[in-house]
Amino acid sequence: MDRFSGLLDSLVLALDPLVLLTIAVATTFGAIIGAIPGISSVMAISLLLPVVYPLDPLIGLLILGSIYMGAMYGDANSAILLNIPGTPSAVPTTFDGYPMTLQGRAREALLAALAGSVIGGAVGVLALLFSFGILAQVSLMFGPQEFFWLTVLGLTMIAALSSGNMLKGLLGGGIGICISLIGIDPYWGSPRFTFGERSLIAGVDLIPALLGLFCLAQVLESLRPAAAGAAPNLADDQGTALKLVLRNLRTRWDVLVRSSFIGVVIGILPGVGAPIASTVSYNETRRWDPRPERYGKGAVEGVVASEVASNAQVGGSLIPMMALGIPGNVNAAVILGALLSFGLRPGAQLLEGSGGLANAFIIGLLISSLMMGVLGYLFIIRVSTLVLRVPAAYLAPSILVFAVIGSYSVSNSIYGVAIMLAMGIAGFLLRRIGIDAAPVGLGLILGPIAEREFTSSILIAQASNDIGTLFLRPISLVLIVLCLASVASPLIGMVKKRISARQQGDVS
Amino acid sequence: MTRALDLTMSLGLVAGLGMMFREALTIAPPANYFPAVVVGLSLCLSLAAAVRSGTAWVRHRSEAASSEPAAGMRDLLVVSILLFVYVAAITVSYVTATVLFLFALYTYVRRDFGLRALAFNAAIALVVSGAVYVCFVLWLGVYLPF
Questions:
Q1: Which of chain A's residues have a Cβ under 8 Å away from the Cβ of B26?
Q2: Cβ contact (<8 Å) for B75 and A401?
Q3: Rounded average pLDDT over A441-468
Q4: Confidence (pLDDT) at A235
Q5: Would the CA dihedral through A304, A305, A308, A310 be positive or negative?
Q6: Tens of pLDDT along A206-256?
Q7: Which residue of A has its CA nearest to B89?
Q8: Given CB atoms, is B21 within the 8 Å cutoff of chain A?
Q9: Given A90, A271, A352, A482, which residue has the most CB atoms within 10 angstroms?
Q10: By the 8 A CB rule, do A311 and A117 touch?
């Protein structure tokens, strides 16, 4: 009863008109930030940190949380409309989102991403509200070995992505990981693969590299005068698209449940983050689908799976932060900084001991997630689709300037821009020989995480003189089985296709 | 052209990954475990891709070269040169460099050299440069030389 009345008090706090206005503005701002390639939500909330300190704690925390929530949705807009992921977690959204745009189904894709973000965001926040103490304990069951296999599970998606040309897909993934190895070894401190070039010691920054790979390579492709005249069409209207999306969500509720679960669980694991959540979710949705061959060609479920998971991990990433003081990712770490500055201490007593503030913050995040649906439908989608009306001759160079300055802003130096240029030209040439940006990008994102966890696991194995610890822990075993299944399913599909093609040839 | 590019790129990848693998072997264990495994596997894949590209190139050597990829490479060269000049010029003056870069690129892509089109391109270049400046410098606090 105490918990219920506490929740009611917090609800009253969160429904204050000023709080609601703050949530609406911050969510919209977050969605815009997420849609601009090169600007991350971390950058935006870090910049706002000094601004929120003097404010009322609830309003300050909700500004940061709502921007985080909005950005995880906003990144889908540029991924769908321009094939440029606003943040690394939107990479899987491009796989089906952009083909849908090319098919004249941009609004359907945008609405699917919006619905997925709203549902995923709400589920993640509800998990935070009702089970944060129990779920925080789950994160403690994961060690480096489990994190390593989880990352490998994300990497196995490369096999699924490249079922058309497995060799080049895997090579692309390998190239991505190899590029991520350049620079100072984070564990041993020695420079590697720099070939005497001093500037490479700093390594390859992820954001400029992804901007080059996805943005510059895409822009170079569209700048060819032959392609510059052709703009993706916007044939579908919003009402019809909404009906299609709602019908799809009703029939494919399994995608929502599975992706929400994946998003929350991966969110609570410190250091894993949204890119793995969206990648694993996309991969699992494809694997469990009766017609996996549709993915990568405009399957709306692919967009939903990616967006549900990346928004569900928002609530998930706040669970260990609020319950144990361990932030799930950098965004959660910045919010933890704000929480501490307002005099709140993370822990099991946070919900009861903060005078309703912690509960009001969580309810505010739920409102942000739901408000995103209204704002997205009425405002954000309508505005963002205007991009498609801009002729490619003006759009592509303008995006290029945003990408250049976005890369520059990462380290306030030309080094980031140089990385973007090198990766863009490499991405353009690789695309010409059949190696897509997606596997290279996944390798770049997941490679450093895989190396970090692999090194920790090896050190543990050496210390305990038992290499079996890398493979034989129960959760690791489950993850290894999932990895094998993930690699085997596209291979089996290919073999089946070949056998049926041969049989058809024999019959004819 | 595409097959020749495929073969050239594949051989380039083999060379690059080969150099990385050689360096990976010089790193002391256990620091080299992960790099050696990943680079070694990638090298094997690149060798397989190179063999496949080489076979395709030998088989289809007599086929007429397509002119479309050549045009694509010319555009890549022009845009890359413009980009390199722009990036170098940003450190001197963001506004001047951006307006000139956008104007040049709009004009190159549109291939319309009429006075009205040029004036329109210049106006759009000014507006976009201003929008980027407001977004990054005034809004997000990124330092750019005016």
A1: none
A2: no
A3: 88
A4: 59
A5: negative
A6: 888 888 888 887 777 776 655 544 555 665 678 888 888 999 889 888 999
A7: A414
A8: no
A9: A90
A10: yes
A217 at B interface, C-beta within 8 A: no
And the tokens for B134?
Answer: 């407001």
- Enclosing H/E stretch for A191: strand A191-192
Q: Is the dihedral of CA A8, A13, A19, A20 positive or negative?
A: positive
Cβ pair A456, A144 in contact under 8 A: yes
Distance separating alpha carbons of residues A98 and A204, to the nearest angstrom: 27
B42, closest residue in chain A (CA to CA) = A174
Cβ within 8 Å, pair A433-B48: no
Residue of A nearest to B76 (CA): A220
**Bigger pLDDT: A7 vs A460:** A460
Residue A17's alpha-carbon distances to A11, A376, A380, in angstroms, are 12, 20, 22
Instruction: Give the residue-averaged pLDDT of A123-127.
Output: 92
Selected residue of A401, A460, A465 to mutate for chain B interface (largest B Cβ count, 10 A):
A401
Burial readout A179-205 (b: 16 or more C-beta within 10 A, e: otherwise): bbbbbebebeeebbbbeeeeebebbbb
Tokens of A379: 């405002």
Per-residue pLDDT of A252-277, as tens digits, reads 889 999 999 999 988 888 766 788 88
Is the pLDDT at B80 greater than 90? The verdict is no
Query: Within A329-473, where are the H helices?
Result: 330-341, 350-353, 357-375, 381-384, 392-411, 414-432, 437-464
Phi/psi at A80 (nearest 5 deg)? -75, -45
Which H or E element spans position A183? strand A183-184
Q: Are A399 and A37 in contact (CB under 8 A)?
A: yes
B54 exposed, middle or buried (CB, 10 Å; 0-12, 13-18, 19+)? middle
Nearest-5° Cα angle at A311, A305 to A312: 85
More confident: B71 or A379: A379
Amino acid at B98: T
Contacts with B, A 364-423, CB within 8 Å? 392-394, 396-398, 400-402, 404-406, 408-409, 412, 414, 417-418, 421
A447 touches B at CB < 8 Å: yes
